Each structure stands twice: as structure tokens, then as C-alpha cells.
Automatic annotation (TrEMBL):
<keyword id="KW-0539">Nucleus</keyword>
<dbReference type="InterPro" id="IPR015943">
    <property type="entry name" value="WD40/YVTN_repeat-like_dom_sf"/>
</dbReference>
<dbReference type="InterPro" id="IPR053826">
    <property type="entry name" value="WDR75"/>
</dbReference>
<dbReference type="InterPro" id="IPR036322">
    <property type="entry name" value="WD40_repeat_dom_sf"/>
</dbReference>
<dbReference type="GO" id="GO:0016779">
    <property type="term" value="F:nucleotidyltransferase activity"/>
</dbReference>
<dbReference type="GO" id="GO:0106274">
    <property type="term" value="F:NAD+-protein-arginine ADP-ribosyltransferase activity"/>
</dbReference>
<keyword id="KW-0677">Repeat</keyword>
<dbReference type="Pfam" id="PF23769">
    <property type="entry name" value="Beta-prop_WDR75_2nd"/>
</dbReference>
<keyword id="KW-0521">NADP</keyword>
<keyword id="KW-0548">Nucleotidyltransferase</keyword>
<keyword id="KW-0698">rRNA processing</keyword>
<dbReference type="GO" id="GO:0045943">
    <property type="term" value="P:positive regulation of transcription by RNA polymerase I"/>
</dbReference>
<dbReference type="GO" id="GO:0032040">
    <property type="term" value="C:small-subunit processome"/>
</dbReference>
<comment type="similarity">
    <text>Belongs to the Arg-specific ADP-ribosyltransferase family.</text>
</comment>
<keyword id="KW-0804">Transcription</keyword>
<keyword id="KW-0853">WD repeat</keyword>
<dbReference type="Pfam" id="PF01129">
    <property type="entry name" value="ART"/>
</dbReference>
Amino acid sequence: MKENLDFGNFYQTNNQFELNTSITYPHGQETLNQMLFHPNKLELATTGNDGFVKVWTFVQENPITKRVSHWRCLSGHTHRSYSSSALCYYKLSTSENINLCCSFEHLVAVWIDTINDLNEEFRYEYSRCFAHSDRKNPVEHVIYNCDKILVCHKTLVNLWNCLNGQFIKSFSWHVHAFAKDPRSSFIALFDKSFFHFYSFSDGKCHSRKGSLFRRVTAAAYIPNDKPSSFVPLQHSRLIFYIPQETNGISGSTASSSENKGFVRNRSIGGNIIYVATHHPVTTVSQSSTASTHDIQSISSSSSSKEYEQIPLVSIETATAPLMKIVPNLEQMVTTAKLNCYAPDDGLSSDESASIMLYTMEWSTKEQSFCYFLNRALNSNDEKQLRPWFHYLKLVSHALAKLKTQHRTIYRVITEDVSRQYQEGNKFVWPEFISGTTYVKAFGDEKNSSQDSKRTLFTIECETGKDISRHTFSDEHDDILLIPGRQFEVVSCLDPGDGLRLIQIKEITLT
């Protein structure tokens, strides 16, 4: 920023600005980080690396004293001399006062506007502080709505109750831009790999996996021409801006993707303006050149015939019989579907969502979708397996479209199962098996707690499917093996410290 903070008056008669006040070094020799105007008054708050949040107010002209109109610093506030950055004005439902909220590194301090007289100095009174324990995780954005505040740190987002100062919950989001919808309680947050639409009113979050691969630097909601069936965009459209070059890496202009369903864009002056809209959900194509994998666990003749005759249906229809089996399934299906409007590998949105649903994690492992599915596959009970037929048909059809991977993958379980896998033994895994090609998993397990028992499988697979483009988390390359694959134990080692190493390889079914 340049040395001066300039205030100007706008005259409608000639549509021009005229300089009113120029302040040299508003935060000393330090950088001015952010500025924000008061929602109701002629007041401006600024933050800087000098550790202060400063409140500037407009002083009206007084012909009697011959005082000219100008801007002046009303007050300055600091917190432990930390560098100040993010700003937010908000009003609680229980008060008429406007609060000023400012971040100081990893902390967020709140001052209450106790006096409405603009000329009264020091009217802001310190109220409370929202603190995060990690001093190395600075606050980058502060967002308020419905008596709640989202504090966006560098590597996570914390939700606080502004009425009582209580912490509510945390999200593992890396937010670098956001936009508030003025027509609803929704806010759009741009993560590294996701769009998150969070509703302050009911606490629900709709997440969609992004495919921009570039950093969004600005975003805003604009009125919607037509109502949308997608709740976060029901009243407004979302536009966001991505520079053509980010971090020195030149990004190519994406092609128009109206046929892909969610994001459209237009290149303007070497940069890209993206418009997020919503299009009707695609249905599963009944005709496909890809052959559906057989699920070997469906072994009885009656079940096999019934399974073969089941048609391909949408993910919503496929999971309808499972709503009473898997908790919170409806919400998870909705989230998965919202993340799969423009899937890769030639998959439909329903096919991609069927894979993503398997990879999603519930609050505990025993509540997850994959846990209930694999339990049914392991049971060899036709009654338990039948409600899963439509889903198995859909996910198998999706996996059949993915390229087969001949790779070595790693899988960790938190128990010692070495007695079940003796060298030379051959066995069939009746469930879905997932693993990662991330070889560092070996080192992570070897260096983990010595008190816990765990087993690290090294699996040489021949029929693995790379599902990394269809998973809810894209931290590593994920490989999925369908049920009924046969394996042979190559070696079983005990390096100590509670860790067992088992090497197995996939072999041809006999």
C-alpha cells in the first residue's frame, strides 16, 4: 500500500470524487492490512501490522467555527500488541449496539459500541476474546451471522456462539475466500479443493468438490434470474474471480462447462470470472459399453439372478432401502451428490456419488456407510445383503468404467491380525478393500504410538480401481478393490513396537 490513506467525497452532479482527507502512515511505518466501513454510520475501521485496530470517523463541516469536514482517528485498540488483520462489524439479536470484531494473530477480540454519539471518544468497550490455542495458526477471515461467528484460521475454521462466547465446533477447511448471501443465511467458502455452502440458520453445510485448481481471490453473490432447486443458490448466484497467474504459475483458461452442470466461466482481460449456477441432476445412463463387475459375495443362485436383473437407478433410489440401516444417510447422499456435478472418467453424477459415498467418514467408524456395507458383505446372509443390491449395482457399474490399476497399495488396521494371515495361505476378501499408494504410510505407522497394536498390509493388486477423483478427501491416491478378490500371503513380519507387516498379492481366482 502507498503511504497515504485517502478519503474522498463523491459528487453526483459531475460523477467525480474529490479528495477530502489524506492521512500519512495511518498505522505508522507498518502495513495497513484491512479496512471496513461501519454498516450504519460514517465510520471506518482499519488494521495494521503495528498491532492496532483504529476507528476513523467523519467530522461534519461547521460554518460557525469555520471547521471544514474531515476524517479523523476516533480511537485505537490493541490486544497484547499482536499484529491485527481481519475485521467484522456485527449486531447481536439481544442488543441494538454494533460490535467491532478484530483478529490479532490467532485471537479474535470484540469491542462493544456503548455510545451512539459519533463525537464521543473511546466509546468502544472491550467485551471478550475468542482464542485458538495454536499461535502459529493466524486468523485470516472473520464472518458473522445469526449470533454466530466463523473464525477462519489458516488451516481450520472455528464456529463460536457470540451470545455466550462458547465454542461450537471446528471444520478442517483452508478458507482463502468467502462471500455472504445477503438474501439468505448462506455463506460460500472457498477451500483448496472444495466449495462449502454453510447455513448459519440451521448449521447445515453443502460441500462440493472443486475442479478449479487455482486460488479464488474474490467472490460475491448477485441476484438470481430464476429460482434454483439447489438450496444454497436458491435466491442468488455466486460469482468469483481467479487471476490468470497465481504464485507464478500460469493457469490456462478453462473451457465453458455448461454441460457439466455447476460452474460456468468467462475469460475477461486475461483473468477468469466464474459464475456458479445449478443445473438439473443427471440420471444414470442405462446404456454403457462398460461391463458391470460381478460382486462375488452374492453367491446363492437366487440372489445372483435377482441381482443381475436389477436396473441401474439414481443414487437417491439406490440408497432408499438403506435409510433405516445407516444413520444420517440422507444428508450424506445429498452431500455426495452435490460434490459430483461434473465428475471425471466419463462417470455420471450418480455413479461418481456412489463411490464418494463409500469414502465418506461419519463421526465414528461404526456409523460409516462403508462399515455397514462391508458388514453385510461379510455376513453372507441373503437377508442382510438384499437391501444393498441397488447400490452394489450402481457402484460396480461405476468402478467398471475406471481403469484397472496394477499397483502396490498400503492398508492399515488398528489391531493385530497376523495369526489369520500365515505365509503361503490363500484367502478371499468378501468386502470392499481400500488402500493408498502413499508410501509414507509405512513410515507414519512405524513411528506411531508403541502402545497400540496395528497391522500394515502391503498389497500387490491386479484389479484395483483408482478412485482418487471421486473421493470425499483427496489427500492421497486411493485404490479400491471390489469384493471377492483372492490373495496369497507372501510374508508376515514382526518388527516390534506392536506393528505387524503383512505382504499379500492378488492371484487369479480358482
